[in-house]
């Protein structure tokens, strides 16, 4: 189940999950349509500052953002190899090795693509790192009118993940105790997956049957509405956060436009 990294009671934890999800939709759309390195960089910086101010520690931020930052390097290396030459022929050559030419335009395209993905990841972290999964489902059911049968089905499915992980550990330990060695490499991985598939499937079916019996014994789904131990609410923090976040995005657009750094948005990125 999705677990928030921001401490309970922190600023972003107090914001309704639906409001946080609504807040990131415009900047995520802008990041997807951006065609320059400046807009996604500014949006990513805004997301990181929002997380830090909202209660996520710097250590947690680094651990969450660092894998996404590695994508920028990946795109810088891969784009010169896959981009069409006619798109970058009018840009200078940085270096050449045999028949391979790395042009400045290819590096720019790779940087733009990497920063675009980095911005998308950091913006979604504003929601995912500060939102508890159960609270999000409650908000969907209570305020977005999602049928509670569907919402609790999601919760039950997520709750099965730790059980399945534990069962995988038990099966692997049993195989090691019996001296089973599947060997290294992809072939060994295939043997391990094939050997674990049947007992893991049987365990998952047993767990699902127990959950179904428990829910049936509590008359789950028998009534159109159900009672709640915790209620989702909209508070004063919700419109303040939404307005501040959207105003920050608007300020980024205005500032980049004034500096002449904002390129036209495009729907289809050329490669």
Summarize the structure.
The protein has helices at residues 17-33, 38-54, 58-82, 104-128, 133-142, 148-177, 185-217, 237-258, and strands at residues 93-97, 100-103. By secondary structure, the chain is mostly helical. The protein has 2 domains: 12-136 and 233-258, no CATH class; 147-217, no CATH class.
Q: Which terms would index this structure?
A:
mainly alpha, 271 residues
Rg calculated over all Cα atoms: 24 Å
User: Structural class, from secondary structure content?
Assistant: mainly alpha
**Percent range of helical residues:** 55-70%
Principal-axes shape call: flat
Number of domains: 2
Strand content: under 5%
Distance separating the two termini: 37 Å
Give the low-pLDDT segments.
none
- According to DSSP, the number of beta strands is 2
Q: How much is the average pLDDT? A: 80
Query: Describe the biggest sheet?
Result: 2 strands, antiparallel
State the order of secondary-structure elements, H for helix, E for strand.
HHHEEHHHHH
